[in-house]
# Entry
Amino acid sequence: MRVVTWNALWRDRDRRLDALCRCLAAVRPDVVLLQETSPDHAAAVAQRLDLAATAVPPRDRIKPMPGTDTISVPAILARRLDRKKSIKLTGGGPACWLITAAVPGPDGGAVRIGSVHLAATCAAGRMTLDPDYLAAARGELGHEAIREPGLRESVATRLQQLATVRAEFTEQQPWLLAGDCNFVPAGIEHRHLLRSGAVDAWEEGPRPGSRCTIVAANPLVAETAADYPDLPPGLPMLDYTLDFQFHSGHGAALAGWTIGVPAPGQDWPSDHLGLAVDYAWRPRLR
# Structure
């Protein structure tokens, strides 16, 4: 099973639809997990990829982004989806949802899939530099001791959201959770998920190339060096990772790689790179 997760960037996403679909079609995914999409945008991507099913939140529960009429939600695209469920996560604004559905798995069973968008931190790459965040990730202090208020509050929100998310997946059924997690590798929230039994596909499978999904060379990334006054001398900007795929350990991630760096003269599909992972699920489920 090849699974791609990709934050499509809510602003001007229809203008970049061709670029997004071109990159997705090139890797021929079985399942696509989008974030910052809409019911119409997700349906258009599914049609281009010949994926028949789309799971999105119900329209009457979706609120537009502040100051706009644009919808930003996660979605799941596949040939077949069963038992769909949409959960609005507390805090973090209108984009923060968990969408789940079952896709056919090995031996007649099913794999529970989740597409998630967690609460963001302004200039999220600061998590790779903030000494309090890094100390809390190592277990040397609690996240409540992070001195920077915006970072401290966003961590607390994400941990609360992850408690809701993790409760949706049982240990008896194979599951896969992916999306724009808005935390960094080996960060507080990342370690929290690993302690709960989740397996990080980035760490398990071979990774051709970099694992970074936010790259400074991308002109759609809104951050500048001014957002990072603590950068080491001579480093003009950061490349870092916010997008992940986690699974239950009922199978194995064979390989993971990023997609979305355009050929010269082509448009960037999003401010994020997509993450593609190949899985082999065990033929007998626990």
